[in-house]
Specification:
single chain; about 475 residues; alpha/beta; Rossmann fold; eight-stranded parallel sheet; six-stranded parallel sheet; 18 helices; globular
Length: about 475
């Protein structure tokens, strides 16, 4: 059946086909290399923003800041100015992206697909098709394209076919082995890497303590337990002119994302969401009683504010919300580092809290948290699903177990960090060689002296982790 997703795919294919027009800029020996970072930035998705911020720092270190010109695509420069200051440039685009993406690709010599969820239909086919268009344009223009720390998952058949075609000359550094397996099954090239948010540096701990006291009523003594809450049951987002017309007539915009994009909804999904929120809140209240702790909600993406409000409305005692709608990634990470325990439905809440050794439990909707908990050996004991039957009791029991073993869990998480840093360093080294291969005769900055030189500058916590 024809859908607006199919129409979006046709648009992507069409703009990829006209991409060989002569206005496209190409690199010549002696030119500064212009690199376009294609991601989901500017919507205050903490993970999406901080991983790209770290890529920018890494590429400057690896290639030489004076040898390259980096442009980051963003949906809202006001939301990303905190991460991308000159000499990094920003290119503003719309969620109706066809022409914007073509213009951005035209002006650059290579593209990097830098969103974690690059090839999957879980969240929105339009998002995957956005990356496919970038890859297809660069393919048509004869310019290099690489996906950096990306994941692949289940895709609708027509999206998978288009990805196989348009991404056929894109090299994938996959974030996980299951993602790499999918990429290779599609006939695409790549190797295993990791996420790039591991090196992100939080705001000062004193800021987080002050904010917890002033905004959430924390007494400064009780252990702080964070719940990274989402709506797991509103995906995927789909374009729909029919739903746009109905919303305009009825004035009911409850399921509207933006423009002609709408969340997926049904009575069954609403029931599942209520059960999820009720389960988290019930477990949280029981844990407060058992351990006299302070609970806060963590909204890693601006869209998470509503679910966080529904969660905190059920919490008995002082509480509060840290939403990325109001706090940037530096601040959000500082709050995550202040926790004594994290219950998360967000992948990057786990990543960013890990560098402080925060024990965590997943209540997960997709494969990303499953993969990272598997890599740490925690999937059997500390991983639950968002639609888990009897979630409250299972989560409370899991929290009790994690709390009892929190010192060991923390040590195991910290012990996994050096491996991720080494993998990220290997990515940087590979990237430098890949650039030299794709642009023969290019002049880059000096080769880093050791493996740490292929990373962004490490903060003191990460340096201490490497010494253990």
């Amino acid at each position: 059946m024809l859908s607006m997703d199919n129409v979006t795919a046709w648009g992507v294919k069409g703009f990829s086909q006209i991409a060989s027009l002569p206005k496209s800029e190409t690199w010549k020996k002696g030119d500064k290399l212009k690199i376009l970072l294609v991601g989901y930035n500017g919507k205050r998705n903490t993970g999406a923003d901080v991983r790209v911020a770290e890529m920018v720092k890494q590429f400057y270190n690896v290639l030489g800041q004076d040898k390259i010109e980096i442009t980051v695509m963003t949906l809202d420069t006001e939301m990303t100015d905190v991460y991308f200051q000159p000499p990094t440039k920003q290119f503003k685009f719309s969620t109706i992206f066809f022409k914007d993406l073509l213009d951005a690709c035209d002006q650059n010599h290579m593209a990097i697909l830098c969103e974690g969820s690059t090839l999957k239909s879980k969240f929105a086919n339009a998002l995957t098709l956005f990356f496919c268009e970038a890859a297809g344009i660069m393919k048509k223009q004869g310019k290099p394209c690489i996906a950096y720390g990306s994941e692949a998952g289940d895709m609708d058949d027509f999206v998978k076919r288009m990805a196989s075609d348009l991404c056929s000359e894109t090299y994938f550094i996959a974030r996980t082995q299951p993602s790499l397996d999918i990429v290779k099954s599609m006939g695409l090239e790549g190797h295993l890497g990791t996420d790039t948010a591991w090196t992100f540096t939080p705001a000062d701990a004193s800021w987080a303590a002050k904010e917890l006291k002033e905004k959430t009523g924390w007494d400064g003594k009780k252990p702080v337990v964070g719940f990274a809450v989402i709506n797991p049951f509103c995906w995927p987002v789909k374009p729909s002119l029919k739903m746009l017309g109905e919303a305009a007539l009825t004035k009911n915009w409850d399921d509207h994302f933006e423009k002609y994009y709408f969340f997926t909804t049904s009575p069954e999904r609403k029931k599942l969401f209520k059960a999820y929120i009720d389960g988290l809140a019930d477990a949280a209240n029981r844990f407060i009683e058992a351990h006299d702790c302070h609970v806060v909600a963590i909204g890693m993406e601006a869209l998470d504010l509503g679910p966080c409000e529904q969660f905190t409305s059920q919490i008995k005692g002082p509480t509060g919300i840290f939403s990325s709608r109001f706090y940037d990634g530096f601040q959000m990470t500082a709050v995550l580092h202040s926790l004594s325990l994290l219950v998360t439905s967000r992948y990057h809440a786990r990543v960013l809290s890990s560098t402080a050794g925060v024990p965590s439990i997943a209540v997960s909707m997709d494969e990303r948290l499953f993969n990272i908990f598997s890599e740490c050996g925690h999937v059997d004991e500390y991983y639950l699903k968002t639609d888990e039957p009897d979630l409250a009791n299972k989560l409370f029991s899991t929290m009790e177990k994690c709390w009892k073993n929190r010192e060991n869990v923390s040590r195991e998480i910290l012990a996994s960090i050096p491996r991720y840093l080494e993998m990220m360093s290997d990515m940087g080294k590979f990237f430098r060689g890949w650039v030299e291969e794709k642009f023969p005769g290019i002049e880059l900055g000096p080769e880093p002296k050791d493996w740490k030189g292929y990373l962004p500058e490490l903060n003191d916590k990460l340096k201490a982790t490497l010494k253990k």
